[in-house]
Amino acid sequence: MANISEFSIVTYERRPGHWRAALTPIRQPANFIKGKTISSIVTPDDSASERDARIEAEKIIGKI
User: Fold this and answer.
1) Helix (H, G, I), strand (E, B), or coil: what is residue 8?
2) 37 to each of 11, 48, 63, how far by Cα in Å?
3) How buried is 44 (Cβ within 10 angstroms: 0-12 exposed, 13-18 middle, 19+ buried)?
4) Does the pLDDT value for residue 32 go beyond 90?
5) At 49, is the pLDDT very low, low, confident or very high (cuts 50, 70, 90)?
6) How far is CA 51 from the centre of its chain?
7) What's the per-residue H, E or C state across 13-62?
8) Are residues 24 and 6 in contact, defined by beta-carbon separation less than 8 angstroms?
9) How much of the chain, in percent, has pLDDT values that exceed 90?
């Protein structure tokens, strides 16, 4: 199980009332090439609020 502190969570509103969150590992993999590789996960479903989107992101981290 991954720790929430190992990820950066950014929430964003796709359109009014439709929130998602993007998760990015803080520690990049060894084969990371700056400017060439992006490794992130976006919550699959819209949430009703920014808080709900963050909670969904934390659930995903808990499953990793």
Assistant:
1) strand
2) 21, 31, 23
3) exposed
4) no
5) very high
6) 13
7) EEECCEEEEEEEECCCCCCCCCCCCCCCEECCCCECCHHHHHHHHHHHHH
8) no
9) 59
Instruction: Look up residue 37 and give its amino acid.
Output: T
Number of domains present in the structure of the chain: 1
Domain containing 29 equals 4-63
Both tokens of residue 34?
Answer: 């700056």
Return the residue matching tokens 């998602």.
20
Q: Amino acid identity, residue 34?
A: K
Question: Which token pair is 53?
Answer: 């989107």
